[in-house]
Design a protein that fits this description.
The complex is a heterodimer of chains A (140) and B (219). With 140 residues, chain A is mainly alpha-helical. Helices cover 56% and strands 4% of the residues of chain A. Chain A is built from 6 helices and 2 strands, in the order ααααββαα. In chain A, a hairpin with a 2-residue loop joins strand 1 (87-89) and strand 2. Chain A is elongated. Chain B has a 5-stranded mixed β-sheet. Chain B has a two-stranded antiparallel sheet with strand order 1-2. Chain B has a two-stranded antiparallel ribbon with strand order 3-4. In chain B, a hairpin with a 2-residue loop joins strand 1 (33-40) and strand 2. In chain B, helix 2 runs parallel beside helix 5. The chains are: A mainly alpha (140), B alpha+beta (219).
């Protein structure tokens, strides 16, 4: 009897863990899928289909270390753009300006960041809308 | 009856083969044209006069004066852009770089990119843009000059739309056309510079045009 209960609880736990995991997985897929579309519409012209950038004019989105280090800044970059500052990506200096997207909803920002954060060799997992909202509060 | 049909089929097939083989690929001549009638040896003949790109005077990224004379004997591709363009120009020039790399060592081919924002895009700004884009030498010129002359040339001669409009991102409306011009300054092709496939076709067409010896083309 006792064994049966334990077995039952164990099975239930497994079911819960699996379903939770798949929910997170599903959220990731949703973010990533929609992010692809935002990227195509708003970023691909400059940063390229493979995130390769354009010569020394526009930086690629392949500098995994840079993106990780500046993770909390990325939402601000997308929403408010980047003024002519010098950014070093993959060891090269870039100083062009990136346009702002002041009207872009936080969810779109989260989606596009999830897309670039998990494409072009990057692996940052889901960047949620809650994280984006928190990061946007702190933009300079 | 059946035999007869078979014969016709064979003849047709032959005709098609022959036709193909006599007909090297040729590019059409585009733009406006005029029929001019004149009298030669007492006979009336009608000639087609094709529109050509008129002379102009601009300055390239090195500060050199550039006129039609500088392009004498060259096939060239022209486009219109500005260095701060946030929309289609990066795509156009990403694609144009492919064209540049394909033909940069060819003596009779050039690319000219006219800025439609000459106030911001000074010679120094254009030089910096060229350096960052990674272009050197004299096969791709970034041309800067009188704004009216640039707009006129675009609208009346290359027949592409350009207009200043503070409502669009970057402040200018323009389309991403690449215009292919032959050694006689006639327009031979329009390609959407934002479309990789059309740009690939243009690269093929440039090769056809370079191989064209006899410039009198039957229309």
């Amino acid at each position: 009897m006792k064994l049966k209960v334990i077995a039952f609880i164990a099975v239930m736990l497994c079911v819960i863990i699996v379903s939770c995991q798949s929910e997170a997985e599903q959220e990731y897929k949703r973010y990533y899928g929609s992010g692809t579309l935002v990227y195509k519409a708003k970023c691909q012209n400059c940063h390229g289909e493979k995130g390769e950038g354009l010569s020394n004019l526009i930086p690629p989105l392949t500098d995994t270390a840079y993106l990780k280090k500046n993770k909390a800044q990325l939402a601000c970059f997308v929403k408010y753009g980047i003024k002519e500052t010098i950014t070093t990506i993959n060891g090269k200096a870039y100083e062009g300006a990136m346009p702002a997207n002041v009207d872009m909803p936080a969810i779109d920002i989260a989606e596009v960041l999830t897309y670039i954060g998990n494409s072009f060799g990057n692996k940052m997992g889901t960047i949620t809308v809650d994280e984006v909202n928190a990061d946007l509060e702190k933009c300079k | 009856m059946k035999k007869f049909a078979g014969l016709i089929l064979i003849i047709l097939a032959f005709a098609a083969c022959k036709f193909n083989d006599a007909d090297k690929p040729r590019l059409p001549i585009m733009g406006n044209r005029d029929a001019v009638t004149k009298t030669v040896n007492g006979k009336q003949v009608t000639d087609t006069v094709y529109q050509t790109i008129p002379d102009f005077k601009f300055v390239n990224q090195y500060g050199d004066s550039i006129t039609q004379k500088s392009l004498k004997g060259d096939i060239y591709v022209a486009d219109f852009f500005f260095t701060t363009c946030p929309s289609i120009c990066p795509i156009m020039h990403r694609n144009m770089l492919t064209v540049y790399n394909e033909f940069k060592n060819v003596p009779d081919f050039k690319i000219i990119s006219h800025t439609i924002d000459p106030k911001h895009d000074s010679v120094a700004v254009m030089k910096k843009y060229a350096d960052k884009l990674g272009i050197t030498g004299n096969s791709w010129w970034l041309l800067q000059g009188n704004k009216e002359q640039t707009y006129d040339l675009g609208q009346k001669n290359y027949l592409v739309a350009i207009k200043q409009d503070d409502g669009t991102p970057g402040g200018y409306v323009h389309q991403g056309w690449f215009v292919l011009v032959d050694k006689q300054k006639r327009i031979r092709g329009y390609y959407d510079g934002t479309d990789e496939k059309q740009v690939a076709k243009m690269i093929g067409d440039i090769k056809i045009l370079r191989a064209e010896v006899n410039t009198e083309i039957a229309q």
